[in-house]
Design brief:
Order of helices and strands: HHHEE
Number of strands: 2
Structural class: mainly alpha
Shape: rod-shaped
Distance between the termini: 126 Å
Oligomer: single chain
Strand order of the largest sheet: 1-2
Helix content: 40-55%
């Protein structure tokens, strides 16, 4: 059994600042602190994991949307390319009644004309895209002759007068 020596002066004052004797720290607050830290850490990891998985689902949805929109954009680009192809443009221009242009003439800055202008040649075998209303023949589905049709010649050589002078009125379905 050893005894501690008595301290005097400055050493005695410093010794009073330190606790004397073997004391045991209270275990309950320490255990509670460790349990709270572990529980908080687990809850934090759970929240973080949930947020990451939610972000992953959103990312998958956005990737699917991006893929479908990319496919749609490529389909539309293919349509544009097919309409912009030279043969398609030429076909559509002919459908609209357009013909290839003639020789061009250019106007110089001083006002002189360079080249000899000529009109575009008209193709005779094609029907014009825009026709006047009187040129459009209206089909009749009934077996009666139309009042606008000429009457057959009578044996006397003259045509029989029509009973009533009426114009052909086109029938509109649903009226």
């Amino acid at each position: 059994m050893s005894r501690k020596p008595e301290l005097k002066g400055r050493a005695a004052r410093l010794a009073r600042l330190f606790p004397s004797g073997p004391r045991q720290a209270a275990r309950t607050p320490f255990v509670l602190l460790v349990v709270l830290l572990l529980g908080g850490g687990l809850i934090g990891l759970l929240v973080l994991n949930s947020a990451l998985s939610e972000g992953s689902f959103k990312m998958d949805d956005l990737q699917k949307d991006t893929k479908s929109l990319t496919d749609e954009q490529q389909a539309l680009q293919r349509d544009i390319d097919s309409y912009s192809a030279p043969d398609a443009l030429q076909r559509r221009a002919r459908e609209l009644g357009m013909v290839p242009g003639g020789d061009p003439a250019f106007l110089n800055p001083d006002g002189t004309v360079k080249g000899v202008p000529s009109a575009a040649p008209r193709v005779a075998d094609e029907e014009p895209a825009v026709r006047p209303p009187e040129a459009i023949a209206l089909p009749r589905t009934t077996g009666t002759p139309s009042p606008a049709a000429p009457a057959p010649n009578t044996p006397g050589g003259t045509s029989a007068p029509s009973a009533a002078p009426t114009e052909a009125i086109p029938e509109t379905p649903g009226r």
